[in-house]
């Protein structure tokens, strides 16, 4: 007993039955009802979404003797049955343009199209599938008949790549009515699968059908083919487990295990994890696709948007939600960017070593620094740049906080500019040495001035005199404020026996020799620009003694 594939058995017979293409089916139906049918149509869109099906329904409606007044074919007469089943019909011809693509085939089509339909009142309909495969010469041969078509002859060109027609036969496009078919949504495909199962007297959990719909990627024909496979495997008892086995999906527990490895930074276990995947027979491309879906789901959890497109087992949903709390939204965005890079380039699919690519991706994710908010970091340091109560002192075994970011240097253990302990007097230093000590210990300096002081050119014209040369701009204005000058004098005086004379001048071409342009001066200038735009950055630079690396 032969089996008819579900995609053929449940092919629509009427315009109203075509899923998710109402903008096309309604236009064609009303054109037939209003006797405004065009002589040539171009159907564009991905595979498996109804282009050829709608072309057949159009041919059925044009030649149906019992057609309804609204343009719908009856679907039950002999003419409709032959056209719907793809059987031989005198007035409806389907041509595979991929194998009949030459100029001789086009000339043969032109000659046949010149004959009248077999019966009065009927239309001759020529359906050319994969029309983009026709050669330029074949299109040129068809151009004249499309310009002046014979009466009651309709051409329908179906293609998945309309841009190729644009390149090889652009004059054709202006002679056709073009319809762009849309990918079918997951919800529409799921509802159609439920209707098909009802017609087969079968049932299936919605979660399993949605998994099939997601894998079909907008193609209803692909979804029905996958459902056929699942029914063959399970004997009609459709389940999520059966769907996973047919599609080769990786178990959700594997992704939970991986997230734990990434969270705890157990770098060495990445290799054994990938080894286990391969031993269990999982495909690296399929695992990578699932990883992207899982990371996207975690990001949606963190942003309060629900799980999104991927469906996980109900008993594991809370576990994934809990695991998402271990990563900040910024971390998940960066992890997604790393993971989708492989997908965008297609390298893991084409590579001869997909295992190595997957191991390197997972290692990058495990070594990736975690995001630290600047405001939270400053708050943790306290109002005056000192650790808050309860934070561990340097040298203790307790973790000191998040992993150090790029460009950060360890904070000096002591503050040389602080007051010496009572009963002791700090030794007086020469003015140049005192200035260096001030730059090393910024505690007593006003907020935000340290970067400008470090970038300034300094001269010592006398034993107790300091002259600072700062480029004109916000930095110069800030340092010249009376309160800033007073505190700066006091800070210098603590190291040299008393406040010196201090003056601040603009650093220009007439104020001494020009400064050499070095990598350091360029970085200092760039850092000043960034601090002018973001005041909080200036505080962070001062408190943490940061420097610009890139």
Classify the beta-strand content into a percent band.
5-15%
Write the CATH architecture name of the largest domain.
Answer: 3-Layer(aba) Sandwich
State Rg: 37 Å
What structural class results from the helix and strand content?
Answer: alpha/beta
Strand order of the largest sheet: 2-3-4-1-5
Q: Report the strand count.
A: 8
Number of helices, where a helix is a run of at least 4 consecutive DSSP H or I residues: 26
Overall tally of structural domains = 4
Q: Rough shape?
A: elongated
- CATH homologous superfamily (4th level) name of the largest domain: P-loop containing nucleotide triphosphate hydrolases
First and last CA, distance:
72 Å
Percent of residues in helices? 40-55%
The third-level CATH topology of the largest domain is Rossmann fold
Biggest beta sheet attributes: 5 strands, parallel
CATH class wording of the largest domain: Alpha Beta
- Which parts are unreliable, with pLDDT below 50 for 5 consecutive residues or more? 383-409, 414-425, 510-514
Mean pLDDT rating: 80
Write the layout of secondary structure elements.
Layout: H1 6-9, H2 22-33, E1 40-44, H3 51-63, H4 78-84, E2 92-96, H5 103-113, E3 124-129, H6 136-147, E4 153-159, H7 162-168, H8 170-173, E5 177-180, H9 186-199, H10 206-216, H11 220-234, H12 240-247, H13 252-263, H14 269-279, H15 284-302, H16 317-324, H17 329-345, H18 347-350, H19 354-367, H20 374-381, H21 431-440, H22 450-455, E6 457-462, E7 465-470, H23 474-479, H24 482-496, E8 501-506, H25 519-533, H26 535-544
Parallel strand pairs: 1-4, 1-5, 2-3, 3-4, 7-8
Antiparallel strand pairs: 6-7
């Amino acid at each position: 007993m032969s089996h008819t594939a579900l995609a053929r058995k449940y092919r629509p017979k009427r315009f109203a039955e075509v899923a998710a293409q109402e903008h096309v089916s309604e236009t064609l139906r009303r054109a037939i009802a209003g006797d405004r049918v065009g002589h040539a149509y171009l159907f564009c869109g991905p595979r498996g979404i109804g282009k050829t099906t709608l072309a057949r329904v159009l041919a059925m409606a044009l030649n149906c003797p019992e057609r309804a007044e609204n343009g719908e074919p009856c679907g039950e007469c002999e003419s409709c049955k032959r056209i719907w089943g793809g059987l031989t019909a005198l007035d409806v011809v389907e041509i595979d343009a991929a194998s009949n693509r030459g100029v001789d085939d086009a000339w043969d089509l032109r000659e046949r199209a010149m004959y009248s339909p077999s019966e009065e009142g009927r239309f001759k309909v020529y359906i050319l599938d994969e029309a983009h495969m026709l050669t330029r010469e074949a299109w040129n041969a068809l151009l004249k008949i499309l310009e002046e078509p014979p009466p009651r002859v309709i051409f329908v060109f179906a293609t998945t790549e309309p841009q190729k027609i644009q390149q090889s036969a652009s004059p054709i496009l202006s002679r056709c009515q073009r319809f762009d078919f849309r990918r079918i949504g997951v919800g529409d495909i799921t509802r159609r699968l439920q209707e098909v199962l009802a017609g087969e007297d079968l049932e299936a959990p919605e979660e399993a059908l949605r998994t099939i719909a997601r894998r079909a990627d907008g193609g209803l024909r692909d979804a029905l083919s996958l459902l056929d496979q699942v029914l063959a495997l399970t004997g009609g008892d459709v389940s999520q487990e059966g769907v996973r086995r047919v599609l080769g999906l990786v178990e959700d527990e594997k992704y939970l295990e991986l997230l734990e490895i990434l969270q705890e930074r157990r770098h060495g276990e990445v290799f054994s994890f990938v080894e286990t995947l391969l031993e269990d027979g999982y495909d690296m491309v399929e695992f990578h696709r699932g990883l992207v879906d899982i990371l996207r789901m975690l990001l949606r959890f963190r942003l309060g948007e629900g799980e999104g497109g991927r469906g996980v087992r109900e008993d594991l949903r809370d576990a994934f939600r809990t695991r998402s709390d271990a990563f900040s939204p910024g971390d998940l965005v960066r992890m997604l960017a790393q993971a989708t890079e492989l997908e965008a380039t297609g390298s893991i699919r084409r590579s001869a070593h997909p295992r190595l690519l997957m191991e390197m991706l997972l290692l990058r994710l495990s070594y990736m620094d975690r995001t630290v908010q600047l405001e939270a970091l400053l708050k943790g340091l306290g109002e005056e740049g000192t650790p808050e109560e309860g934070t561990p002192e340097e040298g203790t075994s307790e973790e000191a906080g998040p992993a150090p970011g790029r460009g950060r240097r360890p904070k000096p253990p002591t503050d040389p500019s602080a007051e010496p302990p009572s009963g002791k007097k700090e030794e007086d230093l020469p003015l140049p040495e005192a200035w260096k000590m001030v730059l090393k210990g910024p505690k007593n300096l006003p907020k935000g001035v340290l970067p400008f002081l470090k970038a300034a050119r300094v001269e010592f014209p006398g034993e107790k005199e300091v002259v600072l040369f700062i480029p004109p701009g916000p930095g110069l204005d800030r340092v010249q404020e009376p309160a800033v000058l007073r505190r700066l004098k006091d800070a210098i005086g603590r190291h040299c026996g008393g406040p010196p004379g201090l003056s601040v001048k603009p650093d220009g071409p007439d104020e001494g020799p020009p400064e050499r342009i070095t990598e350091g001066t360029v970085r200092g200038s760039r850092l000043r620009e960034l601090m002018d735009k973001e005041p909080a950055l200036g505080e962070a630079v001062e408190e943490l003694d940061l420097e610009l690396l890139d």
